[in-house]
Amino acid sequence: MSTLLEQALLRYDGLPVAERFHVHARAFSAPLSAMVARTPMGVVADIGCGHGLLSTLLALEGPGRTVHGVDPDPRKVAWARRALAGQPNVRIEEGTVEETLDRGAPGRFDAAVVCDVLYLLPEEKWAGFLSTVRGLLKPGGRLLLKEVEGDGSWKHRKALAQEWVMVSLLGRTKASGGMALKPRAEMTRDLEHAGFSVREVVDLGQGYTTPHVLYVAEPSVP
Ligand SMILES: C[S@@+](CC[C@H](N)C(=O)[O-])C[C@H]1O[C@@H](n2cnc3c(N)ncnc32)[C@H](O)[C@@H]1O
Does the predicted model carry a pTM greater than 0.85? Predict the structure, then answer.
């Protein structure tokens, strides 16, 4: 395990065992360090930050970053705030991406990370969600969108079953009405329709039992 991940997990030591377990499971099942490595310094929005593990990694790795985590689930916001107490370059807020924009944040962020959030929304809301994220970014800002790819593989079917357990059975993940995992060509088209130029599609599934894919995109120049 990398020192950075170890340091980040230490932050969660004081949380109840179920929350600690959730965060540790997340650390080992999602390629968060690969996302951190591609995230620029500056002001970064972590949309749907959950327990805030990615926000923690971004803040610890880059004292030059200011991280704004936002999530609509008040329970997760409370755990994230507790874990990040005293860390000067992070702020965690309860809310949605639209509320972040309404709070006076248009064009303010150097980067936005959206890690395993989009699939929880109904598909008809994806375009609006992505356009709002684009509105948060400065010209030349970077979107890092991590999704599980709907590639028809056994990993894809396992991921769907796992999410059903987390959302519907255990209620540990708050969905907003969706559970769609798309092939990368479709996801790339969705990003382009929402006004992004996709710079890189990175396969991050190797070594994981989930088909992780990272889309690195920038607002298109009109
Ligand atoms: C699978 S968790 C991922 C958490 C975190 N991004 C990570 O990678 O560890 C999905 C998160 O998306 C949040 N979420 C659900 N609907 C959302 C929405 N409409 N806007 C922003 N976040 C949302 C959930 O509350 C949950 O914390």
Answer: yes
Protein residue whose Cα sits closest to atom 18 of ligand 1: 96
Nearest CA to ligand 1 atom 8: 115
Q: Which residue has the tokens 């088909």?
A: 211
CATH code, domain carrying 37:
3.40.50.150
Taking the C-alpha atoms of residue 216 and residue 76, their distance in angstroms, rounded to an integer, is 26
Q: Which tokens go with 185?
A: 């060509």
State how many domains the chain has. Answer: 1
- Rounded to the nearest angstrom, the distance between the alpha carbon of 120 and the centre of ligand 1 is 8
Ligand 1 centre from 222 Cα, in Å?
Answer: 30
Burial 46-71 (b: 16+ CB within 10 A, else e): bbbbbbbbbbbbbbbbbeebbbbbbb
3-class DSSP assignment, residue 218: strand
Ligand 1 centroid–CA 42 distance in Å is: 22
**For residue 176, what are the domain limits?**
3-216
Contact 193, 213 (CB under 8 A): no
Whether 117 is in the pocket of ligand 1, judged by its Cβ within 6 Å, is yes
**Which two tokens mark 209?**
């039992």
Q: Does any ligand 1 atom lie closer than 6 A to the CB of residue 47?
A: yes
Instruction: Report pLDDT for 212.
Output: 96
Q: What is the pLDDT of residues 116-158, one digit of tens each?
A: 999 988 899 999 999 999 999 999 999 999 999 988 888 888 8
Q: Could you tell me how far CA 199 lies from the centroid of its own chain?
A: 18
